[in-house]
Amino acid sequence: MPDPLWSGWPGDISQDEEFGLDETTAWDADESAALFVQVLFGMPPRPAFILLPDPARIEESVAFRTVVTRFESGKEQRRAKGLPRRRWRLQFRKGQVDIDELWSFYLARQGPVEPFWWANPVDNKAYLVRFSQMISRRALWRVAFETGLEFVEVK
Known about the structure:
- By secondary structure, the protein is α+β, with helices and mostly antiparallel strands.
- The protein has helices spanning 32-41, 96-108, and strands at 48-49, 58-63, 66-70, 76-80, 85-94, 116-120, 125-131, 136-140, 144-153.
- It has two domains: 13-42, no CATH class; 48-153, Elongation Factor Tu (Ef-tu), domain 3.
- It has two helices and nine strands; from the N terminus they run αβββββαββββ.
- The longest helix has 13 residues, at 96-108.
- It is extended, with a radius of gyration of 23 Å.
């Protein structure tokens, strides 16, 4: 029995004249996803940070930017300056291959310049973030490396 939700939809809907793509539309296999996202949303796709930190060593904070005006009478007036931003401090203890991948990712983003997607393992949500500072690593017997970094939410 056909699924009533999908009944009436042709199997090759992308080839349908009313869909907007002709039969010869094709993209290179390596660029198809990026090109599709750029055409559909009108912006290039963002890279994703996939290296998992130690979940027991994730610190999260929220920073509010508040302007305080103090008057001669002693009263204060407060107002928010922009939206609050989340910050995460992450700690890693990884092998040479993973740490080199992290460094390459950091250099490709030009440090704190270019934002990227990060899936928070604590709440299972994706956030658009950037690096907040430079990173460094510490070698442990040339077998493992420790590094810490901080992400800032981009709004």
